[in-house]
Amino acid sequence: MASIKTICIYGAGALGGAIAAKLALGLREQVTVSVVARGGHLEGIRTHGMRVWEAGAASPLVARVTATDDAAELPPQDLVITGLKGHQLGAAVPGLAKLLHAGTRVVMVLNGIPWWYFHRDEQSGHAERQIEELDPNGDLWRSIGPERVIGCVAYQGAEVVNPGEIRLSNNGHFVLGEPSGEATGDIETIAALLKQAGINISISPRIRDEIWSKLMGNAAFNPISALTRALMSDIMSNPALSAMVGQVMNEVKAVAESLGSRLAISVEERLERSRQIGPVRTSMLQDLLAGKALEITPLVGMVVALGRLAGVATPTSSTILALVTQLDRENLRVAG
Ligand SMILES: NC(=O)C1=CN([C@@H]2O[C@H](COP(=O)(O)OP(=O)(O)OC[C@H]3O[C@@H](n4cnc5c(N)ncnc54)[C@H](OP(=O)(O)O)[C@@H]3O)[C@@H](O)[C@H]2O)C=CC1
Ligand SMILES: CC(C)(CO)C(=O)C(=O)O
């Protein structure tokens, strides 16, 4: 990757939209930033620009970006950043494929286990294993290719509060990592560009450890918040629910370690960090309230499935998976 002149954010929702606005404002005249969005949110972006309220800000950032729901209207891009949820990636494959040239890298901002997890994975004994639950028929593996991907873990709370308008709940940061762990020229270039746009970025040589460490929180809080409609702070101040969170965290840690990850953070430290996040509505609760499909498989289903692969029992996660799957089905039925 020589230099980056074009960036498309595909799925410019809460996180993707915030990243797009910062890139468009911070890299003006240096990079062309465009977004793929849809529905009322796309109309909001077109009409008023992408508006982003940073935590504690008195006025929003407003970025004018080229916005479309048809990726074929855009030229191939030097960098694609996906802000889609894990369960939305498969349907976006044809559009994503139109944005690729030989050297395009794709940064995937995702919670949970990503479809490319075992690519260049030397630690689990399952290198290059494809995950059917996350990538049915191998469409992503074949059309995007795991070798293009750079993993991204987001420590940034965000919500689309109105069409085209995003509110950030903290001054967050993002961790990037090549699946191989290498400090490639590509990842250095991308991180430098994101930093230049004012985004807090670090690079990890062990991105899977970062994925699991974040997932200790999401595998617990996201489904429990959807099942109870509680904010994270409410879950933490309820002794029975916070004990359940601890049980899920222990299960996630055990699965991670049995697949060769090393988690520097203990369950107690992870609980303490979650306590500090405060009255945040998780992304899964946001989707439930909006009548949208829930991101269950990457966050909960994979803890159970990879636990099975690794021979680790996950009884609490399995119970939560059954409950939240039924909730999702019923929620979608009611939403029509
Ligand atoms: N929000 C948060 O606080 C955090 C989220 N994350 C993770 O980051 C990832 C992104 O989450 P988040 O930003 O919340 O997601 P959002 O739901 O806010 O954004 C996804 C966007 O992509 C759009 N989209 C989906 N499919 C298509 C398509 N085929 N074409 C065009 N647009 C499409 C969605 O539209 P529509 O709404 O119509 O479906 C939506 O606007 C997830 O994995 C999430 O778990 C991580 C940390 C925090
Ligand atoms: C809970 C939170 C905000 C933690 O960053 C998150 O990752 C999500 O809502 O999916």
From TrEMBL:
Protein name (database record): 2-dehydropantoate 2-reductase
In its UniProt entry, the species of origin is given as Rhizobium jaguaris
Q: What is its EC number?
A: 1.1.1.169
Described by its record, this protein's role is as follows: Catalyzes the NADPH-dependent reduction of ketopantoate into pantoic acid.
Record InterPro entries:
6-PGluconate_DH-like_C_sf, 6PGD_dom2, ApbA, KPA_reductase, KPR-Related, KPR_N, NAD(P)-bd_dom_sf
Its UniProt pathway annotation is:
Cofactor biosynthesis; (R)-pantothenate biosynthesis; (R)-pantoate from 3-methyl-2-oxobutanoate: step 2/2
Under Gene3D superfamilies, the record lists:
N-(1-d-carboxylethyl)-l-norvaline Dehydrogenase, domain 2, NAD(P)-binding Rossmann-like Domain
Please provide, in alphabetical order, the Gene Ontology terms of the cellular component aspect for this entry. Answer: cytoplasm
Q: Name one GO molecular function term.
A: 2-dehydropantoate 2-reductase activity
Record-annotated Ketopantoate reductase N-terminal domain positions: 7-179
Q: Which UniProt keywords apply?
A: NADP, Oxidoreductase, Pantothenate biosynthesis
Q: Which residues form the Ketopantoate reductase C-terminal domain?
A: 207-326
**Family per similarity comment:** Belongs to the ketopantoate reductase family.
Per the record, the domain of life is Bacteria
Reactions this protein catalyses: (R)-pantoate + NADP(+) = 2-dehydropantoate + NADPH + H(+)
